[in-house]
Specification:
eight-stranded antiparallel β-sheet
């Protein structure tokens, strides 16, 4: 890659206008610091185009001059894929926010890549439809970023991950050409399914600028329950009962007592939903197109769980506000870990039946490698995705202890990833590869798959200008 000179910066600036070409370090800061402050980037220029045509012009010029570009959505990524690590130019899509069309007949919504997840969900709701992806960062994460990382979320059990929602894409290729593939068709067997090359590619093959997303009918009734369990195995067994009885289990989220206590201690306005402590908890949401009868089903799941020794106690939300309060506990789990000092994080997946064994074996391996380390597993039981995080040991000097703890990250990850692979799992369930897991990918991915990925990269981005150094 060539370092952009003054003349090139002037030419790139002219495409978007001076107001939307940021060179002031203070204005650039929001684009260079990722949300956990693990990575801080550098860039000579942040470009904020408003149209697909402007993105096309930027990439055409960048490709001709071999200038590296890092695409960015809401900057909520957790693996460093959206950060310019080597002084690349940042191309932010946060001005491309239009809802181009809502079609309630075909149950689709066409949106630009910079639209936030919450904006899309709100627009769907206005048409009495549901866009079913749900992430704690919905107010800031963008559709382009969700698709580029193939994001998951708390509703993936019922509705699938980001890839499941996309029917068509508009993508600007590395040389500036635009792939116009914004179709609404559920059935289209006209050759290769090109959209799936770009979903999950983290901006390394092309830049998604718009998407046609599938919508679903809004549920007429929703029930939320918070259940105390004796073990993680009980959670897996209870999931089977819930899916057999309810049909549409939207979410089934796992939490430890340690995790709940951290939320109660550090998040104002939260309280323990149950009267006594339990080793494990499940937050279960069930939805239905029927306006009545769902509460009876949830109560039946609850009672069956108690009869079989899977549930020790529980609470079913009686109002919408109570349901939101239960969900707030789950949504704060990721954020509250900052209060505990250093945190070594893993976004992994294993077969659902292997979740209890994975957690038990990982806990043993981690605490043996780092005495006093505090495992903090939580996540999505229904799709096998566990956020297996470990907080630093308690100590008098949090800063010094954090440095010492984080220095052991490779040792801890070797142990955890080894157990994941033993159970036939994945080292990246929903956050992507970025730079955080780039060097580990060849160690766990089929060599032929890696070769094919490199072939695709070379074919679609021969000059290597798109998000260089990420994924591969």
């Amino acid at each position: 890659m060539l370092k952009p000179d003054k003349d090139l910066i002037t030419r790139l600036t002219a495409i978007v206008g001076e107001k939307y070409a940021l060179t002031d370090p203070d204005l650039q800061a929001a684009y260079l610091h990722e949300m956990r402050d693990r990575w801080v980037g550098t860039t000579p220029l942040v470009l904020r185009p408003e149209t697909t045509a402007q993105v096309s012009e930027i990439l055409k010029l960048a490709n001709e001059t071999r200038t590296a570009i890092v695409p960015q959505g809401g900057n909520t990524g957790l693996v460093g894929g959206q950060i310019p690590h080597h002084n690349e130019i940042v191309l932010s899509l946060n001005r491309m926010t239009a809802i181009r069309e809502i079609d309630p007949i075909t149950n689709t919504i066409t949106v630009e890549a910079g639209a936030t997840l919450q904006r899309v969900r709100d627009a769907a709701a206005e048409a009495d439809r549901l866009y079913p992806q749900l992430l704690p960062s919905e107010g800031s994460c963008t559709i382009g970023g969700n698709l580029s990382t193939n994001a998951g979320g708390t509703a993936a059990l019922a509705h699938g991950v980001a890839r499941s929602h996309a029917l068509g894409l508009e993508v600007v290729l590395a040389d500036g050409r635009v792939l116009h593939n914004l179709n609404k068709l559920k059935k289209d067997n006209t050759g290769y399914d090109l959209k799936n090359l770009f979903i999950g590619s983290e901006g390394t093959l092309g830049i998604i600028t718009a998407a046609v997303l599938r919508l679903v009918p809004r549920p007429r009734s929703v029930e939320v329950a918070f259940l105390g369990l004796p073990s993680s195995q009980a959670a897996v067994d209870l999931l089977g009962i819930a899916q057999a009885r309810a049909g549409n289990v939207t979410s089934f989220e796992l939490l430890t007592r340690f995790g709940l206590e951290c939320v109660l201690k550090h998040v104002a306005g939260t309280r323990d939903p149950l009267d006594s402590p339990h080793p494990w908890y499940v937050l279960m949401e069930v939805s239905s197109q029927m306006s009545t009868g769902l509460r009876d089903i949830v109560e039946d799941i609850f009672e069956t769980g108690i009869e079989r020794g899977l549930v020790e106690d529980g609470a079913i939300a009686q109002t919408l506000e109570q349901g939101k309060a239960l969900w707030r506990i789950r949504e704060e789990v990721g954020e509250v870990q900052k209060k505990l000092g250093g945190s070594i994080k893993h976004d992994v997946s294993v077969p659902i039946a292997s979740i209890p064994a994975f957690i038990e074996q990982a806990n043993a391996a981690v605490t043996a490698a780092v005495p006093g380390a505090r495992p903090f597993p939580f996540g999505h039981v229904g799709d096998g995705n566990i956020h297996y995080n470990i907080s630093q040991p308690q100590g008098a000097d949090m800063v010094a202890d954090k440095a010492a703890f984080m220095a052991q990250e490779d040792i801890v990850q070797d142990a955890v990833f080894g157990i994941v692979l033993k159970h036939g799992g994945s080292i990246s369930a929903e956050h992507g590869i970025g730079i955080a897991k780039r060097d580990r990918l060849p160690l766990v991915k089929d060599p032929v798959a890696i070769e094919l990925m490199r072939t695709l990269k070379a074919a679609l981005d021969p000059n290597g200008i798109l998000n260089p150094g990420k994924v591969l």
